[in-house]
Amino acid sequence: MQAKYITPAVTMFCEDGTVNYEETGKVYEHLIRGKVDGILVLGSIGEFFALTLEQKKELIRFAVEKVAHRVKLLIGTTSMVFDEIIELSRFAKEAGADSVIILPPYYFPISDAGIETYFGRIAEALPDQELYIYNFPDRTGYDIAPQVMAHLAERYANIKGCKDTQSGMDHTREVIRQVKAVRPDFEVYSGFDDNFAHNVLAGGDGCIAGLSNVFPELTHGWVEAFAREDLQAVQELQQKIDTLMGLYQVGKPFVPYIKAAMEERGIVNGSAASFPFPEVTPEDREAIRAVFGKAGVL
After folding, report:
1. 179, 205, 196: which is closest to 72 by C-alpha?
2. What is the dihedral of CA 209, 210, 213, 217, to 10 degrees?
3. Measured between alpha carbons, how far is 226 from 218 in angstroms, rounded to an integer?
4. Which residues does 170 contact at the CB level (< 8 Å), separation at least 6?
5. Of 4, 5, 28, 44, catalytic
6. Which of 81, 223, 245, 272 could make a disulfide contact with 13, Cβ separation 3.0–4.6 Å?
7. How many CA atoms, within 13 angstroms, populate the side-chain half-sphere of residue 65?
8. How far from the centroid of its chain's Cα atoms is residue 85's Cα?
9. Annotation marks residue 190 as catalytic
C-alpha cells in the first residue's frame, strides 16, 4: 500500500517575535533527513496567521532555497483577503514551490454553494498551479461537505487533493469514498497523526500532521511498513503514535509544546511562538518527557 506523510513544519521565532531563520532551517534539514514525503510551510502549526504578507514572502523564498526540491514543498496561502491568496499563491509558484494549500474563509460560515464558488474562483485564477483544499472545522467553524469536495475534484483538475483535519475518520472516510469515485488520483490526507493508518486502509493517501516535526523517523517508518504490508509494524507504530498524541495535550494551543518537544530531542534551540501563545514552563517540559517515557522514545 502506498502512502505519504507530509510535515506541516513549525516556524521558529526569536524572542522578539521575528522569524528565526537559522532554527527554521534546522527544522527543514531535520525533516528531510527523516525522509518525510513533503514539507508544508505556513500551515496552522507554522503560524501563518501571525505573519504579514511580506514576512510570508520572505519565508517562502527561504524555504524554496533551503528545501531545494529535495522533497515536495507546499505553501499555505490562506488569507481572509481574496486578492492576497491569489498574489501569494502566484508568488509561491514563481519562487519555485510545488503546490499551495488554502483554508476556506473563517469567522462566518459559508454555504456549500459558497464554498464551491470560492474554491472554483481560486482554481480558475490559478489554472497552472497545484491546489490543495484545507478543511479544518475546529478553526473555521464549519465543515466542507464530502459532496462539495467531490464536485470541486470533478470540475477542477488543478485541485489535486485535500487535508481533512478531523478528530475522527467518519468525515474523511466519506470524502475518500466520494472523491475517489470521480477522481481516483485526488489525494486525501488526514490532519491528525493517529488517523494515518485508518486513512490509508480506507483508501486515502496518508497524513499531513504535526508529530512528524518531532519524530519524522517514526512516521516514515509507518509509510514503509504499509509499503511492505507489514501489519505488525503498522500496529506497533499506531500504539506508539497514540501515546505520543499526548504531546498535543500538554498545553493549549499546542504549537509551542511541539516546539519544546523538538527542543527536548535536540532538534532545535528554543520554543518561542508568536504572541499571544504561552511560554513553555519547566512543568510543561516534565510533562513532555513523561509522554516520551510512556512511548519508549527517551
Report:
1. 205
2. -50
3. 13
4. none
5. 44
6. 272
7. 9
8. 18
9. no
Model pLDDT for residues 95-123, shown as the tens digit of each residue: 999 999 999 999 999 999 999 999 999 99
Residue indicated by cell numbers 532538534: 267
Instruction: Give dist(CA 259, CA 239) in Å, integer.
Output: 22
pTM check: above 0.85: yes
Domains and CATH numbers, the chain: 4-230 (3.20.20.70)
Q: Mean pLDDT in the chain?
A: 97
Helix (H, G, I), strand (E, B) or coil at 219: helix
Catalytic-labelled residue, pool 134, 156, 189, 257: 134
Contact call for residues 8 and 43 (beta carbons, < 8 A): yes
- Active-site option among 160, 163, 180, 259: 163
Clarify whether 163 is annotated catalytic: yes
Between CA 98 and CA 27 the distance in angstroms is 19
**Residue 126's closest CA among 77, 167, 174?**
77
| Under 8 Å between Cβ of 158 and 193 | no
CA atoms in the 13 A half-sphere facing the CB of 185: 7
In the residue annotation, 180 being an active-site residue is answered as: no
111 is catalytic: no
